[in-house]
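Hello K.,

You asked for the raw outputs rather than the summary table, so here they are, unedited. I folded two proteins back to back in the same session to keep the settings identical. This is the first:
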Amino acid sequence: MSDTPNTRFGSTGPDLLGPQTTGGGARPAILSLAIKEKAALYAAYMPYLKNGGIFVPTNRPYKLGDEVYLILTLMDDPTKYPVAGRVVWISPSGGTARTPGIGVHFPGDETGVAARRRIEEILGAAVRSGRQTHTI
């Protein structure tokens, strides 16, 4: 299976740096996620986290607590939302019916607040829907 997610997500970039070790420790992985459809955004959004979060399809291995730097593009919005978050959910590849990937918890800073606010503007009342998502 490749690292290319289901096409309803639009596109995701590769983990450009991956968790690499340098003299100062591990650098956060850099991920890019473009979500083109409202249904895909609903399935990926994690509103139950304190600051909100998003599911990012990937086959790369991560550990809970890993730092990741996410560049998020939503729908037709030209704005790119840069978010430095942490891995809080892992759906491993192979052997499950779920899409492999990670859940990234948004930080409580202005970048996380901006991403969460924009996602909830797009989703509106659907945020409270009981439909299945990639994580719950």
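The second followed immediately with the same parameters:
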Amino acid sequence: MSAKNPKVGFVSLGCPKALVDSERILTQLKVEGYDIVGSYDKADVVVVNTCGFIESAVNESLDAIGEAIAENGKVIVTGCLGKRPEEIRAAHPGVLSISGPQDYTSVMSAVHAALPPKHDPFTDLLPTPRKRGKKDDGMIEGVGLKLTPKHYAYLKISEGCNHRCSFCIIPSMRGDLVSRPVDEVLREAEKLAMGGVKELLVISQDTSAYGVDVKYAPKTWRDREYQTRMTDLARGLGELGLWTRLHYVYPYPHVDDVIPLMAEGKILPYLDVPLQHASPRILKLMKRPAAAEKQLERILRWREICPELTIRSTFIVGFPGETEDDFEQLLDFIDAAELDRVGAFPYSPVTGAKANDLPDAVPEDVKQERLARFMELQAQISAEKLERKVGTVQQVIIDAIDGDLAIGRSKGDAPEIDGTVQIQDGAAHKLKPGQFVDVRIMGADEHDLFGLVADKD
């Protein structure tokens, strides 16, 4: 591109769903002729895509806006925190524009106002040819710019959420559930595969609820009918021959239907299920969907069908009203369920959440003490489960080369949130990111596996 092209800096914060929003904005910017630059001093304007889910994320977003203003001066704010414009204006009155999540039109309008796109009267009225992106520019034909490494990508299947969990404000920021048509999602996945993506990470606020808002409307892809529902989507994605990983899956009964697809190798034997707690009383206070389901029985049944299944989950300790007995129920559940990957967080109030009004707040020192006990138990469980893999051969996808090591992930590890497989002789075997390789596991700790490239029979 010409050096005269207008230049935009971009800061992307928050979850993978926000990352996909950033990818869409950046794609539109590139289509309209803007250069994307990586430093404040080279940018003519800076866009900050914020997070506003918990107070620490709010503070991080406000700090990022402040840094952009100090370093550049011309700042456009979008994302979840944009739903609280008065808070942003109070801290940073000089921002040019504020918009909420998925409001791509407002972001582009603000960019146009601050930095009009370069106008070429000889070419603006000509149709833009569809070209495959230049090497390493992040563009995939028919899809757009991706911020992830080129061998994996997030596939967002819906926006919003119909649930009203008492600790969460996502519906107030992102609205009710709006599912993408299943044929549209499958076509995007197909284009990603053609662009070199090897692994798809399916994301939404509630993947299990996919399609309920459109009454599971049927669509056609590759001359076959698929309903707009999680099971049919997984079946279609399984036709692409990629690693497909399901995230944010609530434990509804119909989730049982995707487990056989995992056992057949159609999609990865991996479920990200945000359980949050195990005490029925606390789950009721949280207003969690599927709280009445017998979670442990369902998990054990899933493993009977697919013994290789990896389950990751997240939990909140110290929720208002949580007694020692409630917490012991959670520890008992963790001990019995033997979940593979677990994250836990002490409860913290979120502005606008209904849980703030609940009585019997748990003291901060008790929260931290419970969190430490929880993580100690889970670390022991994780170490024991990973130790069972020593001596096995695992298929691994390579993420990076670090000196003599190749750093990869097994089928049981999602990028950035789970563990890794460190291949001691990876560089010697000239492994490269995006490559699949069989690895003999020689050791393990509570998070990661260590191994050598397996000999071919």
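Residues 364-387 form the longest helix (24 residues).

Happy to rerun anything if the numbers look odd on your end.

Regards,
P.
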